[in-house]
Amino acid sequence: MKIRNLDTFYWVATLKSFRAASEHLHLTQPAITARIQVLEQDLGTDVFVRETKKAELTPSGRRLMPYAEQLMKLDQSVVDAFSNSANVEQSIRLGSSETIIASWLPDFMSHFSKSRPSLNFDLTVDATNNLRDALVAREIDLAFLMGPVAEASIENIELCSYEMAFAATPNIEKQHKVWSLKDIAEKTILTFSSNTRPYRHLRGLIEPHAIGEAKITSSASLGAISRLAQSSYGICALPKAIIQTDLQSGDLVELKTDFDLPPISFTASFVSGAATSSLAEDIARSAVGFIQPILIKNIYQTR
Questions:
Q1: Is the pTM of the predicted complex or chain greater than 0.70?
Q2: Which of 11, 45, 55, 216 could lock 21 by a disulfide, CB 3.0 to 4.6 Å apart?
Q3: What is the pLDDT of residue 72?
Q4: Bridge partners (DSSP) listed for residue 218
């Protein structure tokens, strides 16, 4: 029995798809199918149910899975043990919210790659809810998202928090010395997409003070929100770290309010016990160590 066939079995079973496994392993789908057929011939039994859209395991496949997981963990342990000298190409499927991308993640990836030059990041940028679903489905290995993820299979490491702020162009900001919820509810609010925790909290604050329905424009693109605010379309509610450059330039001005928005907190979350979990945890803890000295008052200070 060839180890590569067991490795292929692991990824098909984990990703629940021959197509997804072929993309992950950079092989054609016929090559994946051929490896599984050879494995089944060696074992004398089918490991996947035929004629189903998803790659579902047979009873024999479920028996085989723990052995495949042990092999993958051992393989990863060997690479980890020789991480300073090994030339083995590795990849980690990293999902990140745009807040992290727009703040410190590019600098961290550059920093981390110096110690692990053979590691490749397969980066996905998406909303927290989508990242959570992808993580639980094992479509990504590690996620930097608004957490924690409340799933028994997921381990969460506290990553960072960001202070939230309302900001607008100077001509809007000067309309009130101190802005109340009623004042803000009269304007169009620009913020995170509607399936996020900050959006839901903000709507809950604004709606009781709005005349009619609260005017909230949401977007998954924080850059788009900032640009809309700079055009005087409305007031943005975003992390200070994201609009710090705009605040420093005077394009946007932070509003003084008689209430506070809660900070948004992020975790590094990964599947516990997966073949990539030790690598994911190493990256997560390295990220924490990287950002702690440079997140000053929740603002990212470049090195």
A1: yes
A2: 11
A3: 76
A4: 191
